[in-house]
Amino acid sequence: MELNMILTITRRNDSEQFTEFFRKYGCSVVMSVVANGTANKSLLSMLGLSASEKMVSVTFADPALRRKLMRKLSSEMKIDMPDRGVAVSVPFSSAGSYTAAALAPSADETGNTDAKEEDSMDSKYELIITICSGGHTDTVMDAARAAGAAGGTVIHAKGTGAISAKKFFGLSIAAEKEMVFIVAKNTNKKEIMRAILQHAGADTEANSLVFSLPVNDTAGFKLMEEDE
Length: 228
Fold this sequence. Notes:
Helix content is about 35%, strand content about 30%. By secondary structure, the chain is of the alpha+beta class.
């Protein structure tokens, strides 16, 4: 079963509205975590955004439902309006059949009439994820912005390999981690990743790991694209 992970970043105060929206269209599994925005003041001003606490929500959908959700995020939830948020869809390469069936309802269950529409990877964006040591988000974002990134979202996390790595390899790994999510144009992806590795890579105090995921759909980027 094909499966997409839909990642939605909104104001924390709006998170319940978006959770109810996804459940309304059959997404029974919606996971959320508090995050912080990193966009600089000039970008916030351009998009009409305020520097508020964010919420990252994750849900799952098959390709047909994903297309419907992305359309409804714009038409029903007005995600393209200033200070509402953004959403990206990332395809899974594989998932357990039972889990996939439980996570994503079928097109028939959601009343979607686009079930037979061919899916395509025609998005011009990619999701860059950086995992760095705690307290080094600014270093990562300064490097990313210098290479063309507009902003990012930070989730605080915790590493699990510190004890075993120290025991077997003599390494000291900071347990406190931060995950930085950056949605970037395909044309800027390599430059942004290269800049992060150069200024905040494994040989620096930030000790960052950087990777990117393909994005097959987006919502909430209308104002930025119109400005460009």
